[in-house]
Amino acid sequence: MKTKRFHARSMSEGLKKISAEFGDEAIILSNRKVGSGVEILAAVEHPAADRMYQYSEPDGAEIIRATNTDREPVDKEHLMGLLSSIGPLKKNPAAQAVTQLSGYQKKHAEYNQPKAQIQSKPQVHKPAKPQSSPRAMTTNKSAAATRSGAGESREISGMRSEIQDLRRLLEQQSQELRKIIPLRHGANESVDPVAEKLSQFGLSIDLVKMLLAEVPVSLGNEDRWKQALAIVSSRIETCQTELVRKGGIYAFNGLTGSGKTTSLAKLAARFVMEQGADQLLLVSMDQFRIGAQDTLKTLSKILQCDFISPDDTLTLEDVLQRYSRSKRLILIDTCGSREGTEYFLDSLAAGTMSSKVRNILVIPSTTTMDVIQDYMDRFSRYPFYASVLTKVDESCRLGPALSLVMEKQLPMAYWTDGQNIPEDIHVARGHHIVSRAITSWRKRYEQKPDAYSRNAEQHLMVN
Ligand SMILES: Nc1nc2c(ncn2[C@@H]2O[C@H](COP(=O)(O)OP(=O)(O)OP(=O)(O)O)[C@@H](O)[C@H]2O)c(=O)[nH]1
Ligand SMILES: [Mg+2]
């Protein structure tokens, strides 16, 4: 193992120096402020002696350029082998050592730590020692009641009236919901099975209401159900031309861990297999975490395409100005945190190329859609061009995600159902995603029909 102290003006400059000399395997042992700069102690098992690519401009933006002489003709099978070797994208463990530097970075480190580590010191709440015996407590209680009898009864009656108000409100809401959704129908007021099923599937109340209004009651339930799903399939907007074929500049936005980098990697690999590597540029806007760029760097080496990480010396605007004509596809990876998204959007706004960049929203189907809605509202100043629905393989109900894209009229470009690069990504087609959603939901529904039945009415009440 080799260790070395690196001095730099800033942490990011230091990390670049380490990366240039020690490569991606470097581990940060310690760091401290020295004068106006930083000193970082780094170690590496085997210094990267023979690199496949030269890091040009080591003191400026990191550019890995795959020259034409580096490139070999694309051999799909060989490429698939290399891609499968990178497997699910992993965070660089060194990131966690470094991310203790600032409050912001610390926040990231916590995000990336497994839960068990975050909660390494669970707070044990011991039951409070009784101050006195139960008998004494009763005595104390009644004494206290006597002392402040009038005050307490006022408090209790206040609470009682609040509870009654709440109950009235709930009853009112539930009556309104029953009016909206014909949950019960027929002489014996039985539950409308189609309404129930649609809500169990996770569609929003507005959507269920709209669907029920469109499917004639005269049809049998099975036909009403099928017709409702056909309407859902036809109302999911999808991109007419596949993005990879269309080309352009696409930035992947979304919550931390939503699958941005993995989806980008899948599309990059797809593009290289179809059109070769020289027309592709990968850009990482995730400057905040040391390990964040490693995946894209590794990917660019495997795919033999260019990679750039803009910074103060070469801004995003410079990169886009320079490469938007020569590259057919530019894929930009962003950092999922609020700060990371803002950094990216601010960098975009600072230049003149923002209208050329299409923002893709990566929606993990395993998350509650309130969170996604909140993210969309927060960054609404830049409209999203399309969405990628991820982790379909891990989700039991796609209804909420489908409701969101339909209600927001956000076209779906792709959906993903696994960690394999590039296989587990599919061009979005309404009927395809709905039938996949129904198949996986039905599997679980048939396994636990009771649980779903119990939840159905509740779902209608709370949504
Ligand atoms: N099962 C499954 N896992 C996925 C899918 N897409 C991504 N993942 C996994 O989800 C995890 C997070 O994916 P990333 O691509 O790193 O997510 P990200 O949005 O780039 O994360 P940050 O950069 O930290 O914000 C990784 O373990 C991926 O392998 C998918 O479709 N199915
Ligand atoms: Mg990422």
From TrEMBL:
The keyword Nuclease does not apply. One of its GO terms (molecular function) is GTPase activity. Its main location: membrane. Residues 246-390 form the AAA+ ATPase domain. GO terms for biological process: bacterial-type flagellum organization; protein transport; SRP-dependent cotranslational protein targeting to membrane. Signal peptide: none annotated. One of its GO terms (cellular component) is plasma membrane. SMART domains: AAA, SRP54. Keywords: Bacterial flagellum biogenesis, Bacterial flagellum protein export, Cell membrane, Cell projection, Cilium, Flagellum, GTP-binding, Membrane, Nucleotide-binding, Protein transport, Transport. Residues 130-145 have a biased composition (Polar residues). It is a peripheral membrane protein. Residues 247-439 form the SRP54-type proteins GTP-binding domain. Residues 114-158 are annotated as: Disordered. It is found in: Cell membrane. The keyword Cytoplasm does not apply. Belongs to the GTP-binding SRP family. NCBIfam families: FlhF. Necessary for flagellar biosynthesis. May be involved in translocation of the flagellum. This is Flagellar biosynthesis protein FlhF.
